[in-house]
Amino acid sequence: MSQDLLEVPEAPARRVRDRGAVWLRIALGVVFVWFGALKITGATPVWRLVADTVPFLPERWFVPAVGVFEVLAGLALIAGVGARVVAGLVALHLLGTFLVLVVQPGVAFQGGNPLLLTVPGEFVVKNLVLVTAAVVVASRR
Q1: Domain boundaries defined on the chain
Q2: Is 29 exposed, middle or buried, given 0-12, 13-18 or 19+ CB atoms closer than 10 A?
Q3: What is the annotated signal peptide range for this record (predicted)?
Q4: pLDDT tens-digit profile of 16-46?
Q5: Which of 6, 86, 87, 89 suits a disulfide with 76, CB 3.0-4.6 Å?
Q6: pLDDT tens-digit map of 82-107
Q7: HSE of 64, CA atoms in CB hemisphere, 13 A
């Protein structure tokens, strides 16, 4: 098979390259609006996980406050308002989610084995992708 058949023509590749970061910013914003709205309304499946990770903070205001931050950050990302700063804050926020692995290893890992994730553990580890997306968005002009 010819190598040319496997290559994407330059014009479409350039369009995707030019717009990809914008699509990533908007997608990240949508995810944050969605997850944040669930926290504000109390409908999030991770309420306990969040509350138990920071037990020194009152959950009745902390979890919804996290939701407010997520909705506002998501809306800013979608609108492209202060996207670099907001994406940086989102990356820091997401790094905080990894506290679950330290504070609640029994919840994150099966039988204490860090290679065997539970559903909450997978939920946290997938945040590596969201952190990376936020870093890419923060690095773009």
Answers
A1: 7-139
A2: buried
A3: none
A4: 877 999 999 999 999 999 999 999 999 999 9
A5: 86
A6: 999 999 999 999 999 999 999 999 99
A7: 6
